[in-house]
Fold this protein.
Amino acid sequence: MTQQQQQANDNQIGDLHISTTQREVRCQQQVLPLTGLEYEIILLLSKTPGQTVAKQQLSEQCLGRKLTPFDRSVDTHVSNIRKKLQQAGSRSQIQSQRGKGYSLVC
């Protein structure tokens, strides 16, 4: 893959550099230690920065299942991502929209 093709598969959102070819997220040249599901969640949120993505959509597209009434798995993954962003010193944040979902704010 050429460097030009690789850059076409990369996204810069605020201080986050998301590489779809390497399936990694960097903040200040540091690779965030994300799990596969955490990577999928931040990738989906990064496609529409500042806009709310419904928890149902996150569950279906990232976890591959419908959201059930007492399912907190999306919330748990988002909490873990938030901690990793904070540890890396990122200015980007995942904000909660109560009763709706989450948004990535840079």
Q: What stands out?
A: Residues 2 and 106 are 29 Å apart (CA to CA). The chain has a mean pLDDT of 92. The chain has four helices and seven strands.
